[in-house]
Design brief:
The protein is mostly helical. Helix content is 63%, strand content 2%. Strands 1-2 form a two-stranded antiparallel ribbon. The longest helix has 33 residues. The termini are far apart.
Length: 186
């Protein structure tokens, strides 16, 4: 397996950081090991699923139409919906962890509504240093570390299997409800 040097860049920004601050976690294939890596991975995935959905709409309404077009929109729409929800969860998780505040976190969530906006927003966050640092798994002398939200976040980060399981189950529950309601425009 080839390792990416610390000077490599993805989307024009340095791909460094990680649990130990050296970037090792991203270079070893674990982008979720830092807030920056997790946020960037899901932000790029959200933009890719926008492309899939828009491509499906192009097939349906311009190129082919009929059943192939319907299938293209259903597949693109499902994947985009799933990754959209994962992005919302990730933006809130990273926003809480990085202590962005409600406005910036809401702006991060809102970028998922505009096609491809998550990538420039990720770059904006990166330029301002709002994605730097490792996951805070232990309390420090900072008084904010003793707030209920921070204690709960640390607990979740120290129990990653439960965090992932809870996230997947929550995502599945929301997707199930949304599928039962039906697609937009129905």
């Amino acid at each position: 397996m080839s390792r990416r040097p610390a000077s490599d860049s993805i989307a024009g920004t340095a791909w460094t950081g990680g649990i130990d601050g050296t970037g090792a976690s991203e270079r070893t294939g674990r982008p979720w090991a830092s807030p920056r890596g997790l946020y960037r991975t899901v932000a790029v995935a959200e933009a890719i699923t926008w492309a899939l959905l828009l491509g499906g709409m192009l097939i349906k309404y311009v190129l082919v139409g009929g059943e192939p077009g319907d299938i293209a929109v259903r597949v693109g729409g499902f994947l985009h919906g799933l990754v959209f929800l994962a992005y919302v969860f990730t933006a809130v998780l990273v926003g809480l962890h990085q202590r962005w505040g409600a406005r910036l976190t809401a702006l991060a969530v809102g970028t998922a509504v505009v096609p491809f906006a998550t990538i420039p927003f990720d770059r904006w966050l990166e330029r301002r240093g709002l994605l730097h640092g490792a996951w805070r798994r232990e309390a420090t002398d900072d008084p904010r570390d003793f707030a209920g939200t921070d204690r709960l976040l640390r607990w979740a980060l120290n129990h990653p299997v439960l965090l992932v399981l809870g996230s997947v189950l929550g995502l599945a529950a929301v997707m199930t409800v949304l599928l039962l309601i039906g697609p937009p425009g129905r």
